[in-house]
Design a protein that fits this description.
21% strand; 15 helices; alpha/beta; Rossmann fold; 7-stranded mixed β-sheet; 16 strands
Length: 425
Amino acid sequence: MKQVLVVGLGGDIGTYAFQRAAHERFGWESIVLGPRVTTFGRHSTLARWIVEPDVFIPETLLGRLDEIAAGHPDHELVLFTNLDFHVRLLAEHRDRLDPRWRLPLPDLAMFDAVSSKVAFAEACDAVGIRTPLTIAVGFTPEALAAGAVPPAEALTRLRETGLEYPVIGKPADSADWFEVDFPGKQKIDHFTSEAQIEAVLGHLAERAYPSEFLLQEFVPGDETHMRSLTAYRDSDGAVTLVAGGQVLLEEHTPGTLGIPAAILTHVDDEAFDAAARLLDHAGYYGFANFDYKVSSRTGENVFFEVNPRIGRNNFYVTAAGVNVAEMVARDLLPEAVDGDAPPAPQVPQDQVLYSVVPYRFLLRYVLEPGLRARVKAAKRRHGVHHPLRYRGDASLKRRLWVRALDLRLVQKYRQHYPRPTESGF
């Protein structure tokens, strides 16, 4: 078996978690190609960094990947990213990549079939999965021709549907959202008035935003009603991994709002079956990360979106017993894995606590007695699983840096979300 090089684009905490999993299971080498060394990679020896400020420009990115491939002629090459922009870019230019690159990522047709929240809702409807009531607002002739509502009619349509505030506002396409900028831009908006909606729609109209902006039903329940689900569908069309967990606390800064900061893993057979149906329906390939919520009013699962990538919080899957890098190896580099593949899909059964928030601080936000007891029990059994706390990358300087990141995160919560609320915002 040749040596394996894992190249991650971007350098977020999800990139670190995957490369940690690859190192822990196989000892694979890693490179991160990004515009700068991120906070998650500071003082780390896990991966070598190649800093490229123009990594979002196609020709520059492809050239850098060619350089890496040429510099490692005897390696097997694995390429992945946790950023929608790069998933799309790689899908658009896959035919120009060195054929040695192995990508656990969807092609362009698959990406378009699920990455737009409008297309996702249509696919869910086709396989009987509940999604929130949604109004798609369009800003270009193409979007309007596809059935989106023009900005001038959005509030009228909103009143007609009878949606109550808060109303959720989010982009239909994360890759397009990455490229647009305007004052007050948020990852997700929680609108409490028509004036707030008008302001955002006005900014997008001025910029001729190329895809839809969604006004969406708020599904009742605080953030502990949110769920994360990670799946992998391999190149033979088999769903080989389904894992999930209950969100305990989300991040609350404007740029990261809604990203899980703490998860208690669990098995949700109904949701797992629904996710597999959708991936099979779409003919999907690679990692997929779903967000859904259990309504506090009806108890039903309501699916919001699927991200065509592994997800920022993927370490909860490895922590619960199924190494995410091994899923890729069994699919794309089977000679690296000893023994027969276990029955598919693999579903982690153990209940573990994943958290990037200090444990005692996390408990301030977990108020429901039954859930609090389960969190404490998971902590007693297995401790707290933090993706950045890795014995294989634990110099004194690195340990002190990760502790400083914990303290900085606590300060952000005290600024943006000092106490839990019924709505989660």
